[in-house]
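thought: fold this chain, then report.
action: predict
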Amino acid sequence: MAVYNGERFLRQAIESVMTQSFSNFEFIIVNDASTDSTFEILKEYQAADHRIRLLSNPENLGLSKSLNRGLELATGEFIARMDADDVCRKERFATQLSWLKSKPELLVLGSNIQKIDENGSPLPTLPPPYNQAVMRWTSFFGQQFVACHPTVMMRRALFSRFGGYAEIPTSQDLELWGRMMDLTPYPIENLSEVLLDYRIHSQAISTKDSILQYQTSNGVRKIVIDKLIGRPVALESIAAYRMSGEYPGIRQAIGDWVEIYSAFFRRFPADAEAVAAINSEFLQRLGRYIYFNPLTKDKVGRVSYYSMIDKLPPKMRGALLANKRGITRHEEVLVEI
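observation:
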């Protein structure tokens, strides 16, 4: 766990780790040159429990470098991530260890979460993807976590094989998962059990630096997408898919999306459940930017269906028309593979 000025929620986070039902662990905490009472709180807990190993950065290094410092000290076969504002459920370590030991092919195991507010009250929460093909797709275009970073337990061998966290301001986890994209079998899973309360508050990175996080994650996704299709894709094209809004190059962007979709299904295996989920999202995204009625007044930032026929495969055109008529056709891949 790395922490910078985390005094407000730090005690609850630490205690949720130290009271785990599985107790044979070391808890490496990196204090990233905090200026509040974080260091004093950490020293108090370190004095009370020998399992805590405390590092203090001489200057603020940021999350990536702080986590990598902690990784250098870690001695366990398995490494769990934790953030200083979240709360582990009591059976988290025991549950994840049992699952990882039963599935040696897995490198990363996340879990479902419950979002909570600053006072610990539950907030509406969408589950993470569980299907591995959908998780891969989420690495390209998703709105959710592939695996929520503070829920994951990872094999130490992951870092020996792929190296530590990239030194980028946010989305360090997504960048790491992207390096594993081509592995077969896919080495990441999520458990459906809620094992962490994920706090949403005004000082969280996902809230405070939301624009930076969004931009960085698009850049990370671009690396994976460029590799998949063998050519560079405009960042604006990726952004337009993930967030509604006017984009002058939407015609080209839709062509990019179709190319990415086609390359994804050529490269990666997907069962019927994954195909249906990906198609549902993909057609919804296309539908935001395509209009069917030439007399519609809502044309700003959108293109005519009939002007896009040359960029849309026949199956995809048919599925879009069916969706327009309220008929769901998500059961098959919408391109010829």
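thought: worth noting. The two ends are 44 Å apart (CA to CA).
final: tokens above.
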